[in-house]
Design brief:
Blueprint (H helix, E strand, L loop, with lengths): L4 H7 L3 H9 L7 E5 L2 E4 H13 L8 H21 L6 H19 L2 H8 L3 H26 L6 H9 L8 E2 L2 E9 L5 H19 L5 H8 L3 H4 L15 H9 L10 E3 L2 E11 L2 E9 L5 H19 L5 H7 L23 E2 L5 H7 L11 E4 L5 E12 L2 E2 L2 H31 L2 E3 L16
Antiparallel strand pairs: 1-2, 1-12, 3-11, 4-8, 4-10, 5-6, 6-7, 9-10
Length: 451
């Protein structure tokens, strides 16, 4: 909600930064700041600098001044959150922790490499991450709590932009609204049986000791994200899995047992239990997808082309066709209207559309229906699609008629930023702060740290 420099300040010390700060052993540590009853260590600042450099971050000033101030502002938010009794759900924190650990493993290449980099076991990393994630979630809630009463009226928006120089009014890129019909080509039973038999063969090879599940996942799984980790998915709850997969995974009790072949919208799987922890589970899986034959693909293209022709001849409307013909569960009950996952609205900039759709839409006129084309859907399946360009607004300077929500958000964020800025300055006046002498010679964004 508040996209400002202040939001960046309070979130800059991410979990990775904090873990690295605690993992490093070659910095002679000392307390350099104290905010309230919370200490900021030299190692915290040094590793924040190193981590920031690795991401190509540039600081607006000396990092040995900017970073301690960022950490000090975090302490202010946590102190206020304690006063306001802000709490977060342990389950929510745990899920975020597991997602973060899975991301580390993916980025570093293996769990062992992650442990080597941090100098900690996975359990130690998980325990430390819990506190970091909980604090970040508490800070986010406290930040929202501080600005929850800010409301913006149309009069305020008009007044704000009336005084803004013309060259400061934001440019709104071209946006489109797109309807889509997708059809999945039929897969022959012979091809389905081939994939199932393939997975059963993997199971026999694993059970006989010829090879390991993780080796086959690395070699053959079509879930490339988990294949590189031997098929391991990391800890997840039922809500993070499709129902068919979750039912099979949570029914496993013995890590030596491999599930029967499981069908989901993504294809066919076999699953192996690694560990259960309460209502979360860590499993490996191998995903195989039946292949669409050239003949079936050609047949489906022809069928979709005929559907497009009938819509153009007004035999039925595009909206009607989506409900009865489209196989895309995400759009067929919404008149085929695509939803931008980044914003939750039906408006897309070209760069946010699926690549195959963007290539088709870019040269279409409003109301036009495309020729059929092949694309990969959200379940990673090959489908045949047609699209209709429902609406298009060319790039332009923001105006009240077409872009009120955008302009309201700009004003709202500005007011939130001003309120947070004032709050930080007020908190400085009433919070105990001590800074070591050698860390005081700085031009702080908020000069009230030194009293």
């Amino acid at each position: 909600m508040l996209r400002s420099k202040v939001r960046y300040i309070v979130s800059a010390c991410c979990a990775l930064l904090a873990l690295c700060a605690n993992a490093q052993n070659n910095v002679i540590d000392e307390v350099i700041w104290v905010v309230g009853d919370q200490a900021i260590l030299k190692s915290d600042v040094e590793m924040a600098r190193i981590e920031g450099q690795s991401r190509g971050e540039r600081w607006d000033g000396d990092p040995y001044c900017v970073i301690p101030e960022q950490l000090a502002i975090q302490k202010l938010f946590l102190h206020q959150a304690a006063i306001d009794s802000i709490e977060v759900s342990d389950n929510e924190v745990l899920q975020t922790v597991e997602n973060q650990i899975n991301l580390y493993i993916q980025n570093f290449g293996s769990k062992e490499r992650m442990e080597e980099i941090f100098g900690k076991t996975t359990t130690q990393i998980r325990e430390q991450l819990f506190d970091i994630v909980r604090d970040n979630q508490i800070m986010s809630q406290e930040r929202d709590n501080l600005v929850k009463d800010i409301k913006v009226t149309p009069a305020q928006v008009r007044r704000y932009f009336k005084d803004v120089p013309e060259d400061s009014i934001p440019f709104v890129p071209t946006q489109v609204e797109v309807q889509i019909i997708m059809r999945e080509p039929e897969i022959s039973q012979e091809e389905i049986d081939r994939v199932k038999n393939e997975l059963r063969d993997y199971t026999e090879r694993i059970n006989s000791g010829q090879t390991q599940f993780s080796t086959l996942a690395l070699m053959y799984s079509e879930d490339k994200g988990s294949a590189v980790h031997g098929g391991e998915l990391g800890f997840m709850g039922r809500g993070n899995m499709v129902p068919e997969f979750a039912n099979a995974a949570f029914s496993l009790t013995d890590p030596k047992t491999i599930s029967k072949v499981v069908e989901t919208e993504y294809g066919f799987h076999i699953i192996q239990l690694i560990e259960k922890r309460g209502d979360r589970i860590n499993v490996r899986h191998i995903l195989r997808r039946p292949k669409v034959s050239d003949a079936e693909l050609t047949k489906t293209i022809s069928e979709v082309d005929s559907i497009a022709d009938e819509i153009r001849r007004n035999v039925f409307t595009f909206d009607e066709a989506t409900q009865y013909i489209s196989t895309d569960k995400d759009t067929r009950n919404n008149h085929g209207l695509m939803v931008n996952p980044n914003t939750g609205s039906s408006k897309f900039e070209m760069k946010d559309l699926p690549q195959e759709v963007a290539k088709v839409v870019v040269n279409m006129n409003v109301g036009e229906i495309s020729k059929p084309f092949v694309m990969i859907n959200n379940s990673e399946k090959e489908v045949v699609a047609i699209v209709k360009l429902k609406n298009k607004v060319e790039g332009h300077k923001a105006n009240m008629r077409d872009d009120y929500q955008l302009m309201q958000d700009i004003v709202h964020n500005k007011l939130c930023e001003e309120k947070i800025d004032k709050w930080i300055r007020d908190m400085q006046k009433t919070t105990y702060v001590r800074i070591n002498e050698e860390w005081r010679n700085c031009e702080f964004k908020y000069p009230g740290w030194i009293k």
